[in-house]
Design brief:
By secondary structure, this protein is mainly beta. It contains two helices and eight strands; from the N terminus they run βαβββββββα.
C-alpha cells in the first residue's frame, strides 16, 4: 500500500476533485462518523482499481503548524496551514487519476499518517 498526500484549496474542492477522479463518496449525512467540526470522509472505492481509503486529515482537513512563538505557558502557538489536506491509502502501482495529479504534495514530516 502507498500513501498519497494531497492538498486542495478547501473541502469543497477536495470533494469535487475526488468525485471527478471517479471516487464515490457517501453523502455527508450518511458517513456515520462525526467530529466536532464536521463529518469524516468514508472509505472510497474506485471501480476496477481496488479499495482506496481517504483520510480527511484530523477530520477537518486542517493541519496546524508551529509559528515559532510560545504562549504564556511556554507551549508552541499553532496556526493552520493553507488548504484542505487529504491522505489516500492506495494499492501499490495504483494509477493516480488526472484530476488529483496537480494536488499531490510531498511533506517532509507528515502531520498525519496511516498506522
Amino acid at each position: 500500500m502507498n500513501t498519497i498526500f494531497l492538498r486542495f484549496a478547501d473541502r469543497s474542492e477536495a470533494l469535487a476533485l475526488l468525485g471527478a477522479a471517479g471516487l464515490t463518496v457517501a453523502p455527508e449525512t450518511e458517513t456515520g462518523t462525526e467530529t466536532g467540526t464536521g463529518p469524516v470522509l468514508p472509505p472510497l472505492v474506485m471501480t476496477a482499481s481496488g479499495p482506496v481509503y481517504p483520510d480527511l486529515v484530523f477530520g477537518t482537513g486542517i493541519v496546524a503548524l508551529p509559528t515559532g512563538a510560545l504562549d504564556a505557558d511556554g507551549l508552541p502557538i499553532l496556526a493552520p496551514a493553507e488548504g484542505c489536506h487529504v491522505n489516500l491509502l492506495a494499492p501499490d502501482g495504483w494509477p493516480l487519476p488526472a484530476p488529483l495529479a496537480g494536488r499531490v504534495v510531498a511533506p517532509a514530516s507528515p502531520a498525519c499518517v496511516f498506522a
